[in-house]
Design goal:
TIM Barrel; six-stranded parallel beta sheet; about 300 residues; binds zinc ion; globular; three-stranded parallel beta sheet; alpha/beta
Length: about 300
């Protein structure tokens, strides 16, 4: 079944590990994606603030370097994948027998508090920005700290809404989450690209039931994260059963039209029961024990196609 995955950290792992996107020994590569019938993958440029400081590189330059790696990989693998900027592109690539790569940014540090950078990054092909990672930045605070969006953060989210660059609230503080919901006015979709349900696993990276309902009301979506410790407290092994439990809860609270997948491949240290991206069909087959194929179609790709439209 065609799958659109809202988040992975594979892109920024490549350089560090001396690997390429076509075939590697990480969670995700293009050959295994193809074999698993994947439709599209959001490739995040994961910007680690401390890593940038320690290496004397600005978050902005770090983004630009990895943007270039993304497009070079798309070019090197033009027989398998092409960049996509919206749902129409994803469907056009599919018609041409190609998967799609969507460029995203995890952590708003490359914006350096400048609204005009939203437009610049949109021209670079970025369609979603995770507002914070686990550090305070110009936009706001991570969920391990707490705190509202900063005035500049609110301006940036407004600009993103105006320009159609999706604000991603995974990692953001609860107070910041509610600020983004307010700014959306239930008019602009809000996305939590890789988070699970706090009711099932009390981790600050997960969403409370009220947050899930609020996301649904914006016509946005939440992507199921495969990290074992977000699925079950203190766990290192991610079981298909745990993924299914969380998915059912997210469907119940956010609504069937507001759930997707956000694997977090190559950003998580967990051992996965279905191993890696090649096991996606096994995972979906297992989930079909409790979820109809019609509903699975929604959470694998139809919801994401609606939001990326
Ligand atoms: Zn993350």
């Amino acid at each position: 079944m065609k799958l659109i995955d809202l988040h992975c950290d594979t892109l920024t792992g490549l350089k560090r590990r001396g690997q390429v996107l076509r075939e590697n020994n990480m969670h995700l590569d293009l050959l295994r994606m193809k074999a698993a019938d994947q439709l599209a993958q959001c490739f995040a440029v994961f910007v680690h603030q401390k890593h940038c400081t320690e290496n004397g590189i600005s978050p902005y330059d770090f983004f630009k370097t990895h943007r270039d790696i993304f497009y070079q990989e798309m070019k090197d693998n033009a027989d398998l994948i092409a960049p996509a900027y919206n749902s129409a592109d994803i469907l056009k690539n599919l018609e041409n027998g190609l998967m799609s790569g969507v460029l995203t940014i995890e952590a708003g540090e490359p914006l350096e508090g400048k609204c005009e950078r939203v437009e610049e990054f949109k021209k670079d092909g970025v369609r979603m920005i995770t507002l914070t990672w686990n550090f305070e930045n110009e936009i706001g605070f991570p969920n391990r700290m707490g705190g509202h969006l900063k005035p500049k953060g609110k301006e940036i989210v407004d600009t993103m809404n105006q320009l159609g660059v999706l604000p991603d609230v995974s990692h953001l503080s609860d107070e910041g989450f509610w600020d983004v919901i307010e700014l959306s006015q239930n008019k602009y979709p809000v996305v939590a690209s890789h988070s699970d349900a706090r009711a099932l696993c009390d981790h600050p990276r997960n969403m409370t039931d009220d947050m899930l309902k609020a996301l649904g009301n914006t016509n946005g979506m939440v992507g199921v994260n495969y990290s074992a410790d977000f699925l079950r407290e203190g766990e290192r092994f991610a079981s298909m059963e745990a993924v299914l439990d969380h998915t059912l809860h997210l469907i119940d609270k956010a609504g069937i039209d507001h759930v997707a997948f956000g694997s977090d491949y190559d950003g998580i240290g967990s051992v996965l029961e279905w191993k890696d991206v090649s096991g996606t069909p096994d995972l979906l087959e297992y989930m079909h024990s409790k979820i109809s194929w019609d509903d699975l179609e929604k959470i694998t790709h139809k919801n994401a196609l609606r939001v990326f439209a």
